[in-house]
Structure formats: structure tokens, C-alpha cells
Amino acid sequence: QVQLVESGGGLVQAGGSLRLSCSASGSISSINNMGWYRQAPGKERGLVAGITSGGSTNYADSVKGRFIISRDAAKNTVYLQMNSLKPEDTAVYYCNARRDFSYGLFHNYWGQGTQVTVSS
């Protein structure tokens, strides 16, 4: 099992910055990829940014150039630096860890979520 605990959410004005942290514990060695997802009211949860165990990253088009995902393996922590925040970034942000198995199977672990609210 893997446990994920997020922190760093809050209220910020448009144009401001926040940094989210996700601390992982448990069967850390089993984790392959980690990432951040978000879900706004009435919308589906979607990928914001992901990072592989090798350090490769990918971003949703809406956050490219503004958000940066990073991973500190020694601290078992993933960060999401969010800059130039917009009201449309308002959502609950969830940390995700994925464990891959054979035959294309995988299991997702989720944190409890942290609220980010951007005021205009």
C-alpha cells in the first residue's frame, strides 16, 4: 500500500503562486509514475502534470509554461509549483501515484485532495 498526503493549497489572487507538496509513504519502491490531477465543481478529474521515475514530465496544455512538477526521491515527495495562477485553476488538486504490473495492468493511489482557490 501507498499513502499520499498533500499540502500547500489555499486562497491566492490571480497572478499569484502556490506550491503543492505530496508526501508518499508505504511501499514507495513500487511506485512508477506520480502526478497531480484536479477536479473543479461539475467537471471530471483531469491530469495537470505527471512525472516518471526517470524524471520525464508532461503537462496539460492549460498549465504549460506556468506549472512545474518536480520529484525529490530522497524525501519521497512530489511538488507542483504553480505560477501565474488564473481563476480557472480553481479546483481540488489530488496527488496520484501509479504502480504498474504485468500485462498493462496498473493501480492508482490517491491523496485526500487539497483545495486551491484563485480569486479574480
Topology:
Blueprint: E1 2-7, E2 10-13, E3 18-26, E4 33-39, E5 46-51, E6 57-59, E7 67-72, E8 77-82, E9 91-100, E10 106-110, E11 114-119
Parallel strand pairs: 2-11
Antiparallel strand pairs: 1-3, 3-8, 4-5, 4-9, 5-6, 7-8, 9-10, 9-11
Strand tally, please?
11
Order of helices and strands: EEEEEEEEEEE
**β-sheet strand percentage:** over 45%
Low-pLDDT regions: none
Distance between the termini: 40 Å
Describe the biggest sheet? 7 strands, mixed
Mean pLDDT: 95
Overall form: globular
Kindly report the oligomeric state of this protein.
Answer: single chain
Radius of gyration: 14 Å
| Number of helical stretches of at least 4 residues | 0
**Which structural category do the helix and sheet elements fall into?**
mainly beta
Helical fraction equals: under 10%
Give structural notes:
With 120 residues, the protein is an all-beta fold. It has strands spanning 2-7, 10-13, 18-26, 33-39, 46-51, 57-59, 67-72, 77-82, 91-100, 106-110, 114-119. Strands 2, 4, 5, 6, 9, 10 and 11 form a 7-stranded mixed β-sheet that branches. Strands 1-3-8-7 form a 4-stranded antiparallel β-sheet, with no helix packed on it. Strand 7 (67-72) and strand 8 form a beta hairpin. The mean pLDDT is 95.
